[in-house]
Amino acid sequence: MTQYGFFFDQSRCTACKACTAACMSWNQDTPSPAKWARLFEWEEGTFPNVRLNMLFAPCYHCANPVCVDVAGGALIKEDKYGAVLIDPAKNTSASLRAAWSACPYGAISFASDAPDAVASKCTMCVDRLEQGLQPACVLACLTRALDFGKLADLQAKYGKISDLPGLPSSSTVQPAVVFKARDAKKQLVPYDATGVITLMGNRDPYPAVYTSATAVTDVPAGTVGRSKLVLHASSTAEQSLTTRDDYS
User: Which one, of 149, 153, 174, 147, lies nearest residue 163 by Cα?
Assistant: First the structure.
């Protein structure tokens, strides 16, 4: 088997959603909770050390797809490209929900929360590959944060990193993906962060907005709407929130 896979440069991604829109357009999907190419955004940290994270998360078509083992034949790992595909003749909700639970990345999507909801997932654009084309998401990427090809070629070009902070370990499933982590944060314009916090709180002669810097630097849990990566959403509503892109 020749394994094909994706490359994702987290430092280049701006969350423009061109990849998700292209996926929907090519596959003629209508807006719904079922998303094949998910683009996650989540915040971490507080002023002055705030980061916005992005993650391109289709199916990574793992070399050792544990989802296939529990899907009761509803999933197959085809040989030509190494894509993990749903067998439409055996697409039963029960087996594919078990596969979704087993997948560390939660790559299978469901049209609703109903027990018999239709399941679907990224196909690696096998139909495009057969035409000599790259996946629609990759060609649509405006910042060239994505690449696609034989996994061995991607690893030779970009390295062999298949883990990012916040993602489950890749050691068991061996995803067909190479990551480049975001660049380290740099302070381009030197300034006194403590002084800025003091200035923002001061409304003299009116009452201060706050009297302690911890009101800015210690944010209570739940204040930030998307403060963590949620690969296994508890409902379609939560998935739509965590991958909010106006295409739900």
Answer: 174
Rounded distance, CA 59 to CA 241, Å? Answer: 19
CA angle at 239 for the pair 236 and 240, rounded to the nearest 5°: 85
Domains of the chain as residue ranges with CATH:
4-185+227-242 (3.30.70.20)
Give the total residue count for the chain: 248
* Strand 4-9, strand 177-180: pairing: parallel
Provide the token pair at 245.
């892109």
pLDDT in tens, the chain (248 residues): 899 999 999 999 999 999 999 999 999 877 777 889 999 999 998 888 899 999 999 999 999 999 999 999 999 999 999 999 999 888 877 889 999 999 999 999 998 899 888 899 999 999 999 999 999 999 999 999 999 999 999 999 999 999 999 999 999 999 999 999 998 888 889 999 999 999 999 999 999 999 888 989 998 888 888 889 999 999 988 888 888 754 54
pTM of the model: 0.90
- Token representation of residue 21: 């829109």
The structure tokens 């509503």 sit at: 237
Both tokens of 161, joined, read: 């990193």
- Residue 5's Cβ-count burial label (10 Å; 0-12, 13-18, 19+) is buried
| All residues at 6 or more sequence positions from 183 whose CB lies less than 8 Å from its CB, including other chains | 11
Cα separation of 241 and 38, whole Å?
11
Q: Are strands 84-86 and 38-44 parallel, antiparallel or unpaired?
A: unpaired
Contact by Cβ (8 Å): 18, 164: no
- Residue located via tokens 């067998």: 87
